[in-house]
Amino acid sequence: MRQGFAEGVTLADGTALSPAEVSALSEDGLVVRVVLKQGVYHQIKRMFAAVGKTVLYLKRLRMGSLVLDPALQAGESRLLSQKEIDDLRKGAAHE
Fold first, then answer.
1. Which helix (H) or strand (E) is 24 found in, with range?
2. Residue-level pLDDT at 80
3. How far is CA 45 from CA 53, 56, 58, 90, 92, in A?
4. What is the per-residue pLDDT across 44-92, written as a single tens digit (0 to 9) for each?
5. Per-residue pLDDT at 11
6. How far apart are CA 25 and CA 58, in angstroms?
7. Residues 6 or more apart from 91 whose CB is under 8 A from it?
8. Strands 66-67 and 21-24
9. Are strands 62-63 and 32-35 parallel, antiparallel or unpaired?
């Protein structure tokens, strides 16, 4: 699986996804970290489905340079600072 994701995955509908970095966080390999350079609709779930796996739980930890606040509860949000907005825009411009 790791090798396939590193090379990029083509979904059943023909969507070609950029390579992703996958690393195991648990000894059994059931908990993994996925680092994406692109993001398309439900990409992680679709990538795992393409290799016959099901995602049971998914948590975003970071988006570009923005590390998501671990103090926020599920469904909560906060306003971004102007610097955070500018940094996200700069990151999007480089893609």
1. strand 21-24
2. 93
3. 9, 9, 9, 27, 22
4. 898 888 888 999 999 888 888 889 888 998 889 999 999 999 988 887 7
5. 81
6. 14
7. 64, 65
8. unpaired
9. unpaired
Q: Given its phi and psi angles, is residue 61 left (phi above 0), alpha (psi -120 to 50 degrees) or beta?
A: alpha
CB 31 within 8 A of CB 25: yes
Side-chain-facing half-sphere of 37: CA atoms under 13 Å: 11
Question: Residue 2 pLDDT > 90, yes or no?
Answer: no
Res. 3: pLDDT tops 70: no
Looking at residue 91, its amino acid is G
- CA angle, residues 14, 89, 17, in degrees to nearest 5: 15
Q: With 0-12 CB in 10 A as exposed, 13-18 as middle and 19+ as buried, what is 9?
A: buried
pTM value? 0.74
Cα 8 → chain centroid: 14
